[in-house]
Amino acid sequence: MSLPRVRVFAPATVSNVGPGFDILGFALHRPGDTVEAEASDAPGVVLVEISGDDGRLPREAARNSAGVAAAGVLARSGTRAAFPGVRLWLRKGLPLASGLGSSGASAAAAAVAANLVLGRSLDPVDLVACAMEGEHAASGSSHADNVAPAILGGFVLIRSYHPLDLVRLPVPDGLFVAVVHPHCAVSTKSARALLRDRTFPLPDIVANTGNLGALVAALHQQDLALLGRSVADALVEPIRAALIPGFDRVRRAALDAGALGCSISGSGPTMFAFAGSDDAAARVAVAMRTAFRESAGLNSDAWTGPISPDGAREVR
Amino acid sequence: MSLPRVRVFAPATVSNVGPGFDILGFALHRPGDTVEAEASDAPGVVLVEISGDDGRLPREAARNSAGVAAAGVLARSGTRAAFPGVRLWLRKGLPLASGLGSSGASAAAAAVAANLVLGRSLDPVDLVACAMEGEHAASGSSHADNVAPAILGGFVLIRSYHPLDLVRLPVPDGLFVAVVHPHCAVSTKSARALLRDRTFPLPDIVANTGNLGALVAALHQQDLALLGRSVADALVEPIRAALIPGFDRVRRAALDAGALGCSISGSGPTMFAFAGSDDAAARVAVAMRTAFRESAGLNSDAWTGPISPDGAREVR
What we know:
The structure is a homodimer.
Chain A: E1 5-16, E2 20-40, E3 44-51, H1 65-77, E4 85-91, H2 102-118, H3 124-139, H4 147-152, E5 155-161, E6 164-169, E7 176-182, H5 188-193, E8 199-201, H6 202-221, H7 224-230, H8 237-241, H9 247-256, E9 261-264, E10 271-275, H10 278-296, E11 300-306, E12 313-314
Parallel strand pairs in A: 3-4
Antiparallel strand pairs in A: 1-2, 1-12, 2-4, 2-5, 5-6, 7-10, 7-11, 9-10
Helix pairs in contact in A: 1-2, 1-3, 2-3, 6-7, 9-10
């Protein structure tokens, strides 16, 4: 008798989105990671194989974001799990340490895949909580702004972490995004260490909450100009921009090429920009790639398109 | 020939609304302040009379929020002003230093009234900017979270102060508010001084931006339960609550009586609570008044009703 087996794709995600540090993210159509999961009669999680990472990720399931997320699904499913264990094959489609939610996509795909083969006893919010455990293993921090959109799709706001309270936000018609990943790495752990123990003055906090509120209003009101004006971060971006070679020039190039707004994706070095059409997003991406090359000598990859309404899902 | 003369009412406002320090406020139907304005051939602003303040407000126009706001309208109207001056009569309906936007209501009513008699050359955002100058004269700070809803009505978000960028937010059907003003005073200047030079850690900022974003989403999605959960402030409320006798007991009483959420109105001591019906708001107000009396020996006034879609407006 063959054991249940599925293949799940989870998309790259842009988190923070300017003023939404640790609370806001959205899903892209591509790139993404793929996890195959097979139910097992042997207890626990076995990470059979990882491909596409040049051997850089931990192979031990208990130290890998996909393995930890699947273990979380096993634990939370408890006696509802149809099998005591799960075996995983992880195929990385996302560059590591890119700011595109790489560890989050692996965790999201593994959580969804494990749940499918173990009997589907967890709901999406449970799965986000499991994927957060995977994120913690990879980055040292239990943030959900990548794994929540990687699982739910679209734009997701995290109202609260204790308890976990997720709010889906609408995606306006006509909104496109350009995402440009320069060929250098920023580790999430290092980027977060820069922020540890920092405190921030009230005027900068007021500026950020104003922009965050306006960004949420713009998504509901389909006001792309307001959305663009709201992509501004007085707290974290100035600190993290220093880790991204050419940041100011790339941002300027994006805006000059017609971007509605531009900021860092996650902890960088990937940068994203919003645009009002697919063509505009493509022009913006070209301008950003040129600016990375000319100002910092960096080659880059780019993806453009609409925001994906879909999160992690079974694929054939 | 008689000179143009109008009477304008501007409503009380609840600002901050939990997580929205300095960027969020909404208008009540009542109470409010009334300003009569008359165009004048004598240059400048004359504050002819103030009533209802027990003689506590500055009579000099240049030091009074209504006088300064009207002077701002004169200055911004420039050569478009049909007259070189304006005379004002201010009737206070709002208690001073209550957290109900008292100085803001006077400034809003004066700005709108002055614009009407001087030829209506300013738009609502200009009028908010003028009223902010009045607010600055009264409180030492140019915040807009009272004067913006006092002029525009409804729920208003301030995305940015430089430049001033206001976002109107929808008011859900079935949302009611209870506002309870205990008979003690908190000066806005003193309340703001407590915050000066403070800095705040990132986890508390993350909690606040999550709640602020969720509050804005809840208004658009008509999700009253989410709205209630979002009325939480980890930054300013804990500091200001210490100035309000009985704060914890009053908040607890509001929630026990069915409030969706409860926090400080502006810099206090007034507290507000959201409720899902007019009856529920009335029960909540009774519970809050009882708690102020029993826990702090304070009498109080209460107002209940829906949020007002209207801001400052001409009345007969």
